[in-house]
Amino acid sequence: MLLRDLLVALPGLIGSTGTASRVQELEVQDASQIVVPTAVTSTKAIALPDITASSGFLGQAMSDYYKQTGFQPPATPEPEPPVVPTPDPDPTPLPSRTENLTAEAGRVLTIEPTDSGIASIKILSQTSHGHVSVNPDKTLSLVLSEDPDNQSDTAFSYEITYQNGKTQQVQAKVDVVAGQESDGWGKGDFYMLETGADGRAVVEHGENHRKVYVTEGAHGLTAAEIAKAEGIAVSKVTGKWLLEHPEYGATPDKALDTKIGMELWYASTGRSVGPNSNWLLFERGYDYGDVNQVVARGASGESALNPMYIGAYGQGDDPLIRGTIKIFQSPVSHVVIQNIDTTNVNALLGENLLFDNISVTLDGMSVENVKNFSLVDSDIIDVARLKPLNGGKVWDAGANKIAGVYVANSDGVFLDGNFFDHNGWADGYNPSMSISGAMPPSKFNHNLYVQNDNLDVTVRDNIFMRGSSFGAQIRPGGVIENNAFIDNNAGLNFFDGKNYTLALGNIVTSAGYRQLSILDGALSMGIDNVGKQSSLIGNIVAHLADPNNKAEQAIKKIVHTALASTDGFVNDTIVYNWTSGGKAGTVLNTAGLSKTVLDQTTIQNFTADLLGKKTATISDLANYLRAQADGKLDKVVDADVINAFFRKGFGLDTTLRDTAEVVRFTPDDRADGFRWDNRLNWSTEDLPGTQDGDSVDLGGNRVLFGAETVTVDDFIFGNFGQLKATSGKLEITGDISTGKTGNLLQIDNAGQVWIDGYRDTDLLSVELAGGRLANTGTFAGKTAIEATQDAQLLLATSGARFDLAAGSSLKITGGKAKVGFDGGDGKTATLQLHDDATLSFVANATGLGKISEFYSGAFDTSKVTSGIRLDGDLKIDLAGLNTQKGGTWTLIDADQIIGSFDDIAVTGLAKNQDALIRVDYVRDEVVLVVGDAGKGSGQIRSGSSGDADFIDYTQDAVLKTLWSNLQAAMPQVTDDPI
Questions:
Q1: Are the CB atoms for 261 and 269 separated by under 8 Å?
Q2: How far apart are the C-alpha atoms of 484 and 447, rounded to whole Å?
Q3: Torsion of CA 45, 50, 51, 57, to 10 degrees
């Protein structure tokens, strides 16, 4: 999000604290996850200027930020020394004890030991489901959020060390009872790619790829022009013919006109073609009318990382498609649509659909039956019916339902950074609902309507303005964070029956009060909380009407609920001036705040300051945001900026961390307790990577990473720590520290983890079922890696090396996973196997895998010099493959192979079937040859051809470097890399 570093709204009811230094932070946890309290100091922060009645906050805040002047960091108290246990002359442990606990499935339980004199605690054994960890304050967190259906009892054990040096083991038995929401907390499992410096998704193509450039300009090549150039009949120039002549449409100067271009596009995609990462690019500055469905039935990207792409090129306004972008009838998967304007999107069946920076108007957007739907940085405006669907003289509200965006029966719904305005109604309506006027507002029409059959919904950093009824109905519940609800007839609601709700840092202001001659739903509702155990933290509902505008107050006479149901797991919502005409209304959590300042903290004053116009209105703000969305203005205002203005005026914290820290994960029992993108779970109350140089300490927790693009320095797992990445990109540029218990890294779908090597002697297990793990440094630490399905495992990029050390293993399951090397500059990338290392190939229905150079899509050009040194054990399991007829498989392929395996084992063959493993030093490959069943005696043989040594490449610097790297000794590893 833009300006997040300027005015991001941090939760203000919990003071932000952080470690005094990285050294002190590391004192909190040693390799055995022993927690020792350390002194902490207030985080150095940028203080935003105080609000005054002059409402000059925004301009002054911007000026202060950019000039970096006038900031006075808080005084740093002297750190207190850590508590060090006093040795006991009798080291005999205290008798162990049993502790009986009760926990809810799908939630977080914080456990507070009642013992006195505790110096530290460490986990001895984990639970059978869920995850337990020790917090810096010597409490424990039992996180059962990931599997809310599992109500089986569980147990774990931990050890207390007292200040006198005594120790005691505790056996904790946990009675797990049903949670109150059937699906617990949303996991944040979305489809989101890496984002670039411009905030746009970075789309990579794979190996099966071609571009189709299309234009409405006169320079677009027509079928007739192509036929003339080729000397063939016009009727011969079809989409199928163009498939065999890839020069046409491949570049902007060979762009095709819309008719023949779309014919080529449909011929090159769809269910009959198979997965590919083809790109359809419309030239900017043109109206393309109706180009049919755009996404072919059954179309599939090559993978989640290499999707099919529909986008734009050239200069001018984004291309406009007036028809419906349809995704229906047959499932569609791995598709990104970016930088397109359209009048309608109808996605009814699919998986991994990402819409980035699109504009939708008129007929809106409907999404149903999709696994992983994301809408980011887009604008949805003026969605309304031009004519009623019903007969008669009045608009039938029930028959003409419409929403800016409607989502149903989908799992993994992510809306971030969008602008919704003026949806579900049109200017010029008749309050009597006569069809002589434009479409009137209705209680059935909303800016955003998320039906109650969805799961795992996150709505973050959006602006919802001037909706017919609700700014957003999030009926299944979910994470609703940092949104601005402005001038809607109703702000926000969330129900029960699916996920728990975390409503964090939202503001609701100004009732829309679009009224009909009959009562039709809410006119002035704030937040409608119908969920169970909802957490409402840092929200503001203020100013039903502008307190400085008596005329507006006189109009808005009907006052609906500011906050329906104040019950919840936690609720600190501020409610102020949600009334009209001077009447007393509900006021919550405003003690000690200045009425003068509160009355000036209005959306009207925000807009006046933004535009330099004292009489500015909400309509003026909407027009500004529309121009900003169209690219006519630099984007400087988003939901974070608006919310920060209100938070400052209402006495909430808006300070910003300005120094790098070791950011520690501590599960927050007010919410999920396992999501990376939930700032409540982090010690700094913002996310890692907010400041360059941040490091991460998982604190022995299991953490789910998704949606973010983050770079951090060092990364500490802690004992039992686990990380799962399913979308976004995490780049670790420093060292990785694993615990004595070993740690687990899981990557799936579109998740990416890039590491600059690994050198810890403790075990890092890696499970790759999708996404990408990329090593850009020296990887030599102890590991057990399995790559399967459509995962990418970049063992080494250009300039990197991967050592499979003694006791480590690499298993490649099936034939879809891509394992090996890629880079962009031609430098060397090597894999060195060592004694007692194990390399395994396991066949399944998709085939048998290999190690080789491959095109990952991560580099503009794919150029790398690869080398492999063989050693250790090779295991091949063919049980999952039908080898009755035998065959030949290349297992390893590189620019240079040296060495040999110590032992080779092949299983899964028939008793009368032979196999040969041949190391070919001439072709630099390792090949498996399996004879036909019934024609052998069950022998497993190995052989080689050529010389394992290089010839003298004295004139080839790269190959000389490769030889030197392959002969280099094992890099140094350590049990304490940080």
A1: no
A2: 13
A3: -60
The dihedral sign for the CA sequence 713, 714, 717, 718: negative
Maximum alpha-carbon separation in the chain: 100
User: Per-residue pLDDT for 46 more than 50?
Assistant: no
557, 741, 653: which is closest to 132 by C-alpha? 741
Give Cβ neighbours of residue 277 (< 8 Å, ≥ 6 apart).
204, 205, 206, 207, 208, 209, 301, 302, 303, 306, 307, 308, 309, 857
CA–CA separation, 723 vs 700, rounded Å? 10
Does pTM top 0.85 for this prediction? yes
**Residue 49, pLDDT above cutoff 50:** no
| Cβ neighbours, 10 Å, residue 563 | 22
Average pLDDT over residues 315-320: 97
How buried is 176 (Cβ within 10 angstroms: 0-12 exposed, 13-18 middle, 19+ buried)?
A: buried
Tokens of 732: 């670790």
* Residue whose C-alpha is closest to residue 708's, from 678, 681, 736, 737: 678
CA 424 from chain center: how many Å? 30
33: three-class secondary structure by DSSP: coil
Tens-place pLDDT, residues 809-853: 999 999 999 999 999 999 999 999 999 999 999 999 999 999 999
> Residue 741 CA to chain centroid, in angstroms?
28
> Crossing angle, helix 639-649 and helix 603-611, to 10 degrees?
120
How far is residue 928's CA from residue 912's CA, in Å, rounded to a whole number?
17
Name the DSSP letter for residue 714. -
Identify the H or E element spanning 160. Answer: strand 154-162
